[in-house]
Write a structure and sequence with these properties.
Radius of gyration: 24 Å
Oligomer: single chain
Strand content: 15-25%
Organism: Muraenolepis orangiensis
Helix content: 25-40%
Bound molecules: 2-acetamido-2-deoxy-beta-D-glucopyranose, zinc ion
Number of domains: 3
Pfam families: Phosphodiest
Shape: globular
Keywords: Membrane, Signal, Transmembrane, Transmembrane helix
InterPro entries: Alkaline_phosphatase_core_sf (IPR017850), Phosphodiest/P_Trfase (IPR002591)
Protein name: AP3A hydrolase
Largest sheet: 8 strands, mixed
Strand order of the largest sheet: 6-5-7-1-8-17-2-18
CATH superfamily of the largest domain: Alkaline Phosphatase, subunit A
CATH class of the largest domain: Alpha Beta
Length: 491
């Protein structure tokens, strides 16, 4: 345990060093590597002069709330921000659940239009249920109200690679991603990254130009521990290290300077409380409805002719519960015009949980609440030749990402709910922006000397800070491994 902690302390130091030295290093790594690459693998027709197709990798860390980056040292997120762009407030799509939002990111559509309206749904026309936990996921009919970006990319002659993104192992409109991994939560992050790097660096006609990468954390820990738990700090540090690992692999492969990397998430997370429970059994019989989707935005399908009865039984029973008939769902949520949205929608206020009775296990964190709540918002950072550097933007909508990605890839976007104009300021000027460039010899020496001086000071400072953190980290790591907290507490 002790040695693990020491190595974490070393990691901070190393990351700091990387942070300070990076204005010089990427140029180095990218340039030399690319030459090696061209020299070694250039069988297929003198690649050096060929125009590079734009490359784009979209990464989602599930449930990475926007403000997680500020509660522990996250040197790799920080480096990304400095080398690229950050958006402070990203309004995601209602409901703030995993499947709807991941599909919004790659379609630019609200859930009511792309059709993946929840993680659990019922389609009256198909007379079928969908659950992200079952093989229903592989039925293309659920997905085909929209066309995801990987399909559009391929139809335009591009090649796509997908590692575990929701829907990316489904044959949508007759097409799988050019390269993809079938969903398997046990495949480690490093293996997903390695696969994507191989796809991006394959010899020319084989190489993918658009990739999607998904990782299950920190969502799972957020549910089990609650986002306000100090145990989450360790989880966030781990995600930061995973981001660092990815960047390092991209550098080693000579991709880092050529590839556009977008790091975001589907939603945030909020703390639940055992005192904030709404039990439907107290107000209405289970016989009168089918429970379709889970807390905190519960979809109910009343039995034939029982809508009014269920509605009036629930209306006004708890000030922390909103009860909507489908046609009364507020327009700004863009969540009513789809047959998969049920006749009754119950929305809990932030932190509240809706159950039938209290017998089930409780989670300590959840998401799904209104997308107007800051706690539901995801992180957003991006870097690469298409993006400005060291630029912070106040706000965007997650549906705006789709037209932005189409622009980067040179694709014509399908009709969508986003706007390129709203996010155009994230892009660097000019059609083919040069990599962070033109360092002469002298500035390089200057920054190295400057960095060394700062580093000397920080070494002393960080040592103090890290030593202070050692004890709490040790305590947390031990608590992390308590079996109680390892239990899967998903409702
Ligand atoms: C819908 O499917 C169920 C079985 O899942 C069946 O009992 C029912 O009759 C079907 N309804 C219609 C209208 O086909
Ligand atoms: C999922 O991945 C793990 C780890 O790579 C592997 O051991 C397991 O066989 C895989 N499961 C399936 C169903 O492919
Ligand atoms: C709560 O619901 C479960 C089924 O979900 C049921 O088995 C149990 O009897 C219920 N408990 C009470 C106290 O109603
Ligand atoms: C979202 O975009 C789709 C496709 O253009 C359109 O049909 C739908 O009406 C849009 N939704 C909103 C709320 O504008
Ligand atoms: Zn979740």
């Amino acid at each position: 345990m002790r040695s693990r902690l020491l190595s974490r302390a070393h990691c901070y130091l190393f990351c700091l060093w990387a942070l300070l030295a990076s204005p010089v290093r990427p140029q180095h790594a990218g340039h030399n590597r690319r030459k090696d690459h061209g020299g070694g693998g250039g069988g297929g027709g003198g690649g050096e002069g060929a125009v590079d197709r734009p490359k784009l990798l979209l990464l989602s860390f599930d449930g990475f709330r926007w403000d997680y980056v500020d509660r522990v040292p996250t040197p790799n997120f920080r480096a990304l921000k400095r080398e690229g762009v950050k958006v402070k407030v990203v309004e995601n799509a209602y409901i703030t659940k995993t499947f709807p939002n991941h599909y919004s990111l790659v379609t630019g559509l609200y859930a009511e239009t792309h059709g993946i309206v929840a993680n659990e749904m019922f389609d009256p026309a198909l007379n079928r249920s969908f659950s992200m936990e079952t093989d229903s996921v592989y039925d293309p009919r659920w997905w085909e109200e929209a066309v995801p970006l990987w399909v559009t990319n391929q139809r335009a002659g591009g090649r796509s690679g997908a590692a575990m993104w929701p829907g990316s192992d489904v044959k949508i409109h007759g097409v799988y991603p050019t390269r993809y991994l079938p969903y398997n939560a046990s495949v480690p992050f490093a293996a997903r990254v390695a696969q994507l790097v191989r796809w991006f660096t394959a010899p020319d006609p084989e190489a993918v130009d658009f990739g999607v990468l998904y990782w299950e954390e920190p969502d799972e820990s957020g549910h089990n521990l609650g986002p306000e738990s100090s145990l989450m700090d360790v989880v966030i540090v781990d995600i930061d290290e995973k981001l660092g690992f990815l960047c390092n692999e991209l550098k080693k492969a000579g991709l880092y300077e050529r590839l556009n990397l977008i790091v975001t998430s589907d939603h945030g997370m909020t703390q639940l409380s055992a005192d904030k429970i709404i039990e439907l059994d107290q107000y209405v019989s289970r016989e009168l409805y089918t429970w379709v989707d889970k807390s905190p935005v519960v979809a109910l399908l009343p039995k034939d002719g029982r809508l009014e009865e269920v509605y009036s039984a629930l209306l006004g029973v708890n000030p922390h519960l909103s009860v909507y008939k489908k046609e009364d769902i507020p327009e700004h949520l863009h969540y009513s015009h789809n047959a998969r949205i049920m006749p009754l929608l119950l929305e809990a206020q932030e932190g509240w949980t809706i159950v039938q009775n209290r017998s089930g296990p409780m989670m300590l964190g959840n998401h799904g609440y209104s997308n107007t709540l800051p706690s539901m918002h995801p992180v957003f950072l991006a870097r690469g030749p298409a993006f400005r550097q060291d630029y912070v933007k106040e706000t965007m909508r997650s549906v705006d990402l789709y037209p932005l990605m189409c622009h980067i890839l040179g694709l014509r976007p399908l009709p969508n709910n986003g706007s390129l104009a709203r996010v155009q300021d994230l892009l660097s000027a000019g059609p083919s922006p040069s990599p962070p460039g033109g360092y002469g010899y002298a500035p390089a020496v200057g920054s190295v000397l400057g960095a060394l001086m700062v580093l000397g000071f920080l070494l002393v400072f960080v040592r103090q800070v890290t030593l202070k953190q050692l004890r709490p980290l040790a305590v947390r790591s031990r608590e992390m491994s308590q079996p109680l907290l390892q239990e899967d507490l998903h409702l």
